[in-house]
Amino acid sequence: MVEDEAPSIRDMLAVNLRAARSARGLSLSELSRRSGIGKATLSQLESGGGNPTIETVFSLSRVLEVAISDLLDRRAGGAFTVVRGADVEVLRGEGVDLRQLRRIEAGDGVFELYDQVVRGDAAQRSQGHVGIEHTIVQTGRLQVEVAGRTVEVGPGDYVAFDAREPHCYTALEAPVHSVLLLQYRADERLDGQAHPVLNG
Predict the structure, then answer these.
(1) Where, residue-wise, is CATH 1.10.260.40 in the chain?
(2) Which of 38-42, 122-126, 131-135, 185-189 has the lowest mean pLDDT?
(3) Where does the HTH cro/C1-type domain start and stop, copy by copy (predicted)?
(4) What is the predicted pLDDT for the residue at 85?
(5) Which of 1, 38, 91, 102 is deepest in the core (most CB within 10 A)?
(6) What's the topology of domain 85-186?
(7) Neighbour-count burial for 165-189, b at 16+ CB within 10 Å, e otherwise
(8) Where in the chain is the domain with CATH 2.60.120.10?
(9) In whole angstroms, what is the distance from residue 30 CA to residue 27 CA?
(10) Which CATH architecture has domain 9-76?
């Protein structure tokens, strides 16, 4: 049996960004103004073009007040699921590489599970986005700054915080391999419902 090729991050973002913007009643111009992302860039993203980065996707999540997976949803399914890291497209940022492994819906909440690598070439800053961010370090040492407070964590350590606060990850011993879990409440999902996605 040949499996269908999974849609790309660009394809998923194009479909879901249009749906989220429409549901929020925002024009491209207004979304551009609120997010600081150029109108031409947004138009390109909605057409399935461009090269979306972590910064772009997290900014859109913050402005639209939706879960990251509401923009990048792939809907992994089944009770027995295997996701090969090598088969997952990397969403790259200034200092972090993310691979979305799974979206988990439990009751009214949503959880997103990521393989996260914090590189040593730059700090990864976020203005904040919806959800609670949970990180478990596997290898390396990580500095986490949240709203002016700083902590260093190493292998086996865990840190969690309100992701709406400005935050920054910096690899002190690079690369830092970690598990990132984003947790969302029902009111942080677009209309509390699934969004239209490609291929089903």
Answers:
(1) 9-76
(2) 185-189
(3) 17-71
(4) 86
(5) 91
(6) Jelly Rolls (2.60.120)
(7) bebebbbeebbbebebbbbbeeebb
(8) 85-186
(9) 5
(10) Orthogonal Bundle (1.10)
